[in-house]
Amino acid sequence: MKKYDVFGVGNALVDIIVFLEDSFLQKRKIDKGIMTLVDETVQGELLSELHDYKKNLRSGGSAANTMIALANSGGTGCYTGKVTHDTYGEFYKKDIEEAGIVFETKPNKEGHTGTCVILTTPDAERTMLTSLGISITLEPKDIDIERLKASQYVYVEGYLWDGTNTKAASELTFKTAKENGVKTSFTYSDPFCVNRAKEEFTKLTKDFVDVVFCNLEEAYALTGKDSPESAVDEIAKMAPYVFMTAGKDGAYVAHDGNKSLVPGFPVKPLDTTGAGDSFAAGVLYGLTHGYTPEKAARWGNYVASRVVQEVGPRLAVKLMGRQDEILK
Protein backbone atom coordinates (compact mmCIF):
# COMPACT_ATOMS: atom_id res chain seq x y z
CA MET A 1 0.00 0.00 0.00
CA LYS A 2 1.30 3.44 -0.92
CA LYS A 3 2.17 5.83 1.91
CA TYR A 4 1.04 8.99 0.09
CA ASP A 5 -1.88 9.72 -2.20
CA VAL A 6 -0.06 12.43 -4.16
CA PHE A 7 3.51 13.63 -4.64
CA GLY A 8 3.33 17.29 -5.73
CA VAL A 9 5.99 19.40 -7.45
CA GLY A 10 5.71 23.12 -8.06
CA ASN A 11 6.88 26.66 -7.43
CA ALA A 12 6.82 27.41 -3.70
CA LEU A 13 5.38 30.91 -3.47
CA VAL A 14 3.88 32.92 -0.64
CA ASP A 15 0.53 34.26 -1.83
CA ILE A 16 -0.10 37.85 -0.79
CA ILE A 17 -3.81 38.47 -1.34
CA VAL A 18 -5.19 42.00 -1.60
CA PHE A 19 -8.72 43.20 -2.36
CA LEU A 20 -8.93 46.46 -4.30
CA GLU A 21 -10.80 48.40 -6.97
CA ASP A 22 -10.30 48.11 -10.72
CA SER A 23 -8.95 51.66 -10.71
CA PHE A 24 -5.72 50.42 -9.06
CA LEU A 25 -5.05 48.13 -12.02
CA GLN A 26 -6.04 50.75 -14.56
CA LYS A 27 -3.86 53.45 -13.03
CA ARG A 28 -0.80 51.18 -13.07
CA LYS A 29 -1.66 49.63 -16.45
CA ILE A 30 -1.70 46.12 -15.01
CA ASP A 31 -3.30 43.53 -17.32
CA LYS A 32 -6.33 42.17 -15.51
CA GLY A 33 -7.16 38.51 -15.02
CA ILE A 34 -3.83 36.91 -15.89
CA MET A 35 -0.56 35.95 -14.24
CA THR A 36 2.43 38.14 -15.07
CA LEU A 37 6.03 37.37 -14.11
CA VAL A 38 7.87 40.32 -12.55
CA ASP A 39 11.31 40.76 -11.01
CA GLU A 40 11.99 41.42 -7.34
CA THR A 41 12.34 45.17 -7.89
CA VAL A 42 8.92 45.50 -9.51
CA GLN A 43 7.40 43.28 -6.82
CA GLY A 44 8.95 45.42 -4.11
CA GLU A 45 7.59 48.61 -5.67
CA LEU A 46 4.14 47.05 -5.95
CA LEU A 47 4.12 45.95 -2.31
CA SER A 48 5.20 49.44 -1.30
CA GLU A 49 2.20 50.89 -3.17
CA LEU A 50 -0.03 48.38 -1.38
CA HIS A 51 1.31 49.36 2.04
CA ASP A 52 -2.04 50.65 3.31
CA TYR A 53 -4.09 47.71 2.01
CA LYS A 54 -4.99 44.70 4.15
CA LYS A 55 -3.05 41.60 3.10
CA ASN A 56 -3.73 37.90 3.63
CA LEU A 57 -0.74 35.54 3.48
CA ARG A 58 -0.87 31.87 2.48
CA SER A 59 1.70 29.26 1.52
CA GLY A 60 0.96 28.82 -2.13
CA GLY A 61 1.94 28.22 -5.67
CA SER A 62 -0.51 26.34 -7.87
CA ALA A 63 0.50 22.77 -7.00
CA ALA A 64 0.86 23.65 -3.31
CA ASN A 65 -2.71 24.94 -3.28
CA THR A 66 -3.80 21.61 -4.72
CA MET A 67 -1.86 19.62 -2.13
CA ILE A 68 -3.32 21.64 0.76
CA ALA A 69 -6.87 21.21 -0.55
CA LEU A 70 -6.15 17.49 -0.95
CA ALA A 71 -5.23 17.28 2.73
CA ASN A 72 -8.39 19.22 3.61
CA SER A 73 -10.42 16.53 1.83
CA GLY A 74 -8.67 13.85 3.86
CA GLY A 75 -5.92 12.89 1.43
CA THR A 76 -2.22 12.49 2.15
CA GLY A 77 0.65 14.05 0.28
CA CYS A 78 4.12 15.51 0.19
CA TYR A 79 5.23 18.60 -1.70
CA THR A 80 8.51 19.66 -3.29
CA GLY A 81 9.27 23.35 -3.70
CA LYS A 82 12.06 25.75 -2.77
CA VAL A 83 12.11 28.59 -0.24
CA THR A 84 14.88 30.40 1.60
CA HIS A 85 15.67 31.49 5.17
CA ASP A 86 13.78 34.77 5.09
CA THR A 87 10.53 35.83 6.74
CA TYR A 88 8.39 34.56 3.88
CA GLY A 89 10.29 31.25 3.71
CA GLU A 90 9.85 30.54 7.41
CA PHE A 91 6.16 31.39 7.12
CA TYR A 92 5.80 29.09 4.10
CA LYS A 93 7.28 26.00 5.75
CA LYS A 94 5.26 26.41 8.94
CA ASP A 95 2.01 27.15 7.12
CA ILE A 96 2.08 24.25 4.65
CA GLU A 97 3.09 21.71 7.28
CA GLU A 98 0.32 22.91 9.59
CA ALA A 99 -2.07 22.35 6.68
CA GLY A 100 -1.12 18.66 6.72
CA ILE A 101 1.37 18.33 3.87
CA VAL A 102 4.90 16.98 4.20
CA PHE A 103 7.19 19.71 2.85
CA GLU A 104 10.27 18.07 1.38
CA THR A 105 12.85 20.65 0.37
CA LYS A 106 15.01 22.13 3.10
CA PRO A 107 15.11 25.96 3.05
CA ASN A 108 18.08 27.51 1.27
CA LYS A 109 20.26 30.11 2.95
CA GLU A 110 20.54 32.50 0.01
CA GLY A 111 18.13 34.30 -2.27
CA HIS A 112 14.53 35.37 -1.71
CA THR A 113 11.44 33.26 -1.26
CA GLY A 114 9.10 33.69 -4.22
CA THR A 115 5.93 35.72 -3.82
CA CYS A 116 2.71 36.00 -5.79
CA VAL A 117 0.75 39.21 -5.23
CA ILE A 118 -2.89 38.40 -5.99
CA LEU A 119 -5.00 41.46 -6.71
CA THR A 120 -8.69 40.62 -6.40
CA THR A 121 -11.30 43.03 -7.75
CA PRO A 122 -15.01 43.27 -6.79
CA ASP A 123 -16.02 40.97 -9.66
CA ALA A 124 -13.96 38.18 -7.98
CA GLU A 125 -11.42 38.23 -10.82
CA ARG A 126 -7.82 37.75 -9.72
CA THR A 127 -4.76 39.32 -11.27
CA MET A 128 -1.44 37.79 -10.27
CA LEU A 129 2.01 39.35 -10.31
CA THR A 130 4.61 36.73 -9.51
CA SER A 131 8.25 37.04 -8.50
CA LEU A 132 9.57 33.49 -8.60
CA GLY A 133 12.61 34.18 -6.42
CA ILE A 134 14.50 31.07 -5.36
CA SER A 135 11.64 28.76 -6.39
CA ILE A 136 13.05 28.80 -9.93
CA THR A 137 16.22 27.04 -8.71
CA LEU A 138 14.36 23.80 -8.01
CA GLU A 139 16.35 21.07 -9.77
CA PRO A 140 16.35 17.30 -10.30
CA LYS A 141 18.41 16.55 -7.17
CA ASP A 142 15.64 18.12 -5.07
CA ILE A 143 13.20 15.37 -6.05
CA ASP A 144 12.89 12.76 -3.30
CA ILE A 145 12.74 9.59 -5.37
CA GLU A 146 11.77 7.32 -2.47
CA ARG A 147 8.78 9.46 -1.50
CA LEU A 148 7.79 9.65 -5.15
CA LYS A 149 7.81 5.85 -5.38
CA ALA A 150 5.69 5.69 -2.22
CA SER A 151 2.90 7.74 -3.82
CA GLN A 152 -0.12 6.74 -5.90
CA TYR A 153 0.10 9.81 -8.15
CA VAL A 154 2.49 12.59 -8.99
CA TYR A 155 1.08 16.05 -9.72
CA VAL A 156 3.13 18.66 -11.58
CA GLU A 157 2.25 22.24 -12.52
CA GLY A 158 2.83 23.72 -15.97
CA TYR A 159 4.36 26.87 -14.50
CA LEU A 160 7.56 24.87 -13.99
CA TRP A 161 8.23 25.03 -17.75
CA ASP A 162 9.38 28.64 -17.31
CA GLY A 163 12.78 27.54 -15.97
CA THR A 164 15.40 25.13 -17.29
CA ASN A 165 16.10 23.57 -13.88
CA THR A 166 12.45 23.35 -12.84
CA LYS A 167 11.53 21.75 -16.16
CA ALA A 168 14.31 19.18 -15.70
CA ALA A 169 13.00 18.39 -12.21
CA SER A 170 9.51 17.91 -13.65
CA GLU A 171 10.74 15.65 -16.44
CA LEU A 172 12.63 13.51 -13.92
CA THR A 173 9.46 13.28 -11.83
CA PHE A 174 7.41 12.04 -14.78
CA LYS A 175 10.08 9.62 -15.99
CA THR A 176 10.63 8.12 -12.54
CA ALA A 177 6.89 7.80 -11.96
CA LYS A 178 6.40 5.92 -15.21
CA GLU A 179 9.29 3.58 -14.45
CA ASN A 180 7.82 2.74 -11.05
CA GLY A 181 4.13 2.37 -11.82
CA VAL A 182 3.12 5.69 -10.27
CA LYS A 183 0.26 7.47 -12.07
CA THR A 184 1.03 10.91 -13.47
CA SER A 185 -1.07 14.07 -13.53
CA PHE A 186 -0.29 17.45 -15.03
CA THR A 187 -2.01 20.82 -14.99
CA TYR A 188 -1.49 23.19 -17.92
CA SER A 189 -1.67 26.03 -15.34
CA ASP A 190 -2.33 29.05 -17.57
CA PRO A 191 -2.91 29.85 -21.27
CA PHE A 192 0.37 31.76 -21.40
CA CYS A 193 2.21 28.60 -20.26
CA VAL A 194 0.54 26.63 -23.03
CA ASN A 195 1.31 29.25 -25.68
CA ARG A 196 4.98 29.38 -24.70
CA ALA A 197 5.47 25.62 -24.57
CA LYS A 198 2.72 24.23 -26.79
CA GLU A 199 4.83 21.64 -28.60
CA GLU A 200 6.47 20.47 -25.36
CA PHE A 201 3.12 20.22 -23.55
CA THR A 202 1.67 18.24 -26.41
CA LYS A 203 4.57 15.78 -26.49
CA LEU A 204 4.64 15.50 -22.70
CA THR A 205 0.92 14.77 -22.61
CA LYS A 206 1.24 12.03 -25.19
CA ASP A 207 4.34 10.41 -23.71
CA PHE A 208 3.92 10.70 -19.94
CA VAL A 209 0.61 12.07 -18.66
CA ASP A 210 -2.18 9.84 -17.37
CA VAL A 211 -4.42 12.66 -16.12
CA VAL A 212 -4.68 16.15 -17.66
CA PHE A 213 -6.12 19.12 -15.77
CA CYS A 214 -6.97 22.27 -17.69
CA ASN A 215 -9.58 24.97 -18.16
CA LEU A 216 -11.30 26.02 -21.37
CA GLU A 217 -8.79 28.73 -22.26
CA GLU A 218 -5.82 26.39 -21.79
CA ALA A 219 -7.51 23.68 -23.81
CA TYR A 220 -8.24 26.10 -26.66
CA ALA A 221 -4.64 27.31 -26.61
CA LEU A 222 -3.26 23.77 -26.83
CA THR A 223 -5.66 22.36 -29.42
CA GLY A 224 -6.62 25.37 -31.53
CA LYS A 225 -10.26 24.30 -31.18
CA ASP A 226 -13.08 26.73 -30.42
CA SER A 227 -15.67 24.64 -28.59
CA PRO A 228 -15.46 22.76 -25.27
CA GLU A 229 -16.44 19.45 -26.81
CA SER A 230 -13.92 19.56 -29.64
CA ALA A 231 -11.13 20.73 -27.32
CA VAL A 232 -11.66 17.97 -24.76
CA ASP A 233 -11.96 15.40 -27.55
CA GLU A 234 -8.60 16.48 -28.94
CA ILE A 235 -6.80 16.24 -25.59
CA ALA A 236 -8.47 12.88 -24.94
CA LYS A 237 -6.58 11.55 -27.97
CA MET A 238 -3.34 12.26 -26.09
CA ALA A 239 -4.06 11.19 -22.49
CA PRO A 240 -6.23 8.51 -20.84
CA TYR A 241 -8.08 10.96 -18.55
CA VAL A 242 -8.98 14.61 -19.11
CA PHE A 243 -10.62 16.93 -16.57
CA MET A 244 -11.44 20.31 -18.09
CA THR A 245 -13.16 22.97 -15.99
CA ALA A 246 -15.84 25.09 -17.62
CA GLY A 247 -16.61 27.74 -15.00
CA LYS A 248 -20.14 27.76 -13.60
CA ASP A 249 -21.14 24.95 -15.98
CA GLY A 250 -18.97 22.45 -14.12
CA ALA A 251 -16.28 20.26 -15.67
CA TYR A 252 -15.87 18.03 -18.70
CA VAL A 253 -14.55 14.53 -18.07
CA ALA A 254 -13.19 12.31 -20.83
CA HIS A 255 -11.91 8.73 -20.45
CA ASP A 256 -12.16 5.39 -22.22
CA GLY A 257 -14.02 6.92 -25.16
CA ASN A 258 -16.61 8.49 -22.87
CA LYS A 259 -17.24 12.20 -22.39
CA SER A 260 -19.57 13.99 -20.01
CA LEU A 261 -20.20 17.39 -18.46
CA VAL A 262 -20.34 17.04 -14.67
CA PRO A 263 -22.43 19.90 -13.24
CA GLY A 264 -21.01 22.34 -10.75
CA PHE A 265 -22.46 23.73 -7.51
CA PRO A 266 -24.08 27.17 -7.99
CA VAL A 267 -22.50 29.80 -5.74
CA LYS A 268 -21.78 33.52 -5.75
CA PRO A 269 -17.97 33.79 -5.90
CA LEU A 270 -16.06 36.16 -3.65
CA ASP A 271 -12.57 35.32 -4.92
CA THR A 272 -11.71 32.83 -7.67
CA THR A 273 -8.11 32.40 -6.51
CA GLY A 274 -7.25 28.70 -6.38
CA ALA A 275 -10.50 27.44 -7.92
CA GLY A 276 -8.75 25.29 -10.53
CA ASP A 277 -6.19 24.10 -7.99
CA SER A 278 -8.97 23.05 -5.61
CA PHE A 279 -10.82 21.27 -8.40
CA ALA A 280 -7.69 19.22 -9.13
CA ALA A 281 -7.39 18.42 -5.43
CA GLY A 282 -10.91 17.08 -5.28
CA VAL A 283 -10.40 14.97 -8.38
CA LEU A 284 -7.11 13.56 -7.09
CA TYR A 285 -8.72 12.73 -3.77
CA GLY A 286 -11.44 10.87 -5.65
CA LEU A 287 -9.11 9.00 -7.97
CA THR A 288 -6.93 7.86 -5.06
CA HIS A 289 -9.96 6.72 -3.06
CA GLY A 290 -11.72 4.57 -5.63
CA TYR A 291 -14.17 7.09 -7.11
CA THR A 292 -15.27 6.93 -10.73
CA PRO A 293 -13.86 9.81 -12.81
CA GLU A 294 -17.31 11.43 -12.86
CA LYS A 295 -17.73 11.21 -9.09
CA ALA A 296 -14.18 12.49 -8.62
CA ALA A 297 -15.04 15.49 -10.83
CA ARG A 298 -18.20 16.11 -8.84
CA TRP A 299 -16.16 16.25 -5.65
CA GLY A 300 -13.66 18.49 -7.40
CA ASN A 301 -16.49 20.82 -8.39
CA TYR A 302 -17.66 20.96 -4.79
CA VAL A 303 -14.21 21.74 -3.39
CA ALA A 304 -13.81 24.50 -5.99
CA SER A 305 -17.27 25.89 -5.21
CA ARG A 306 -16.31 26.23 -1.57
CA VAL A 307 -12.95 27.88 -2.13
CA VAL A 308 -14.37 30.65 -4.34
CA GLN A 309 -16.47 31.72 -1.36
CA GLU A 310 -13.32 32.29 0.69
CA VAL A 311 -10.60 34.94 0.60
CA GLY A 312 -7.61 33.30 -1.06
CA PRO A 313 -6.99 29.67 -2.07
CA ARG A 314 -7.43 28.11 1.40
CA LEU A 315 -10.64 26.61 2.77
CA ALA A 316 -11.71 27.69 6.24
CA VAL A 317 -14.07 24.72 6.57
CA LYS A 318 -12.84 21.13 6.85
CA LEU A 319 -14.24 18.79 4.20
CA MET A 320 -12.67 15.57 5.47
CA GLY A 321 -15.27 12.84 5.88
CA ARG A 322 -18.09 14.84 4.28
CA GLN A 323 -17.96 13.23 0.84
CA ASP A 324 -20.87 10.83 1.33
CA GLU A 325 -23.07 13.56 2.78
CA ILE A 326 -22.40 15.96 -0.10
CA LEU A 327 -22.29 13.52 -3.00
CA LYS A 328 -25.26 11.36 -2.02
Topology:
Elements: E1 4-9, E2 13-19, H1 22-27, E3 35-37, H2 40-49, E4 56-60, H3 62-73, E5 77-80, H4 87-98, E6 102-103, E7 114-120, E8 126-131, H5 145-149, E9 151-157, H6 164-179, E10 183-187, H7 191-196, H8 198-208, E11 211-215, H9 216-223, H10 228-236, E12 241-245, E13 251-255, E14 258-262, H11 275-287, H12 293-307, H13 323-327
Parallel strand pairs: 1-5, 1-9, 2-7, 3-8, 5-6, 9-10, 10-11, 11-12
Antiparallel strand pairs: 2-4, 7-8, 12-13, 13-14
Helix pairs in contact: 3-11, 9-10, 11-12
Strand order of the largest sheet: 6-5-1-9-10-11-12-13-14
Instruction: Work out the number of β strands.
Output: 14
Question: What summary fits the major beta sheet?
Answer: 9 strands, mixed
Give the uncertain stretches in residue-range form.
Answer: none
C-alpha Rg (nearest Å): 18 Å
Give the total of domains.
1
Mean pLDDT over the full residue set: 94
What is the CA-CA span between the terminal residues? 28 Å
The residue fraction in helices comes out at 25-40%
Determine the CATH superfamily.
Answer: Ribokinase
Order of helical and strand elements? EEHEHEHEHEEEHEHEHHEHHEEEHHH
Structural class: alpha/beta
Name of the CATH architecture: 3-Layer(aba) Sandwich
> For this structure, what is the CATH class?
Alpha Beta
Give the DSSP E fraction (strand runs of 2 or more residues).
15-25%
- Assembly category: single chain
The global form is globular
Number of helices: 13
Look up the CATH topology. UDP-N-acetylmuramoyl-L-alanine:D-glutamate ligase
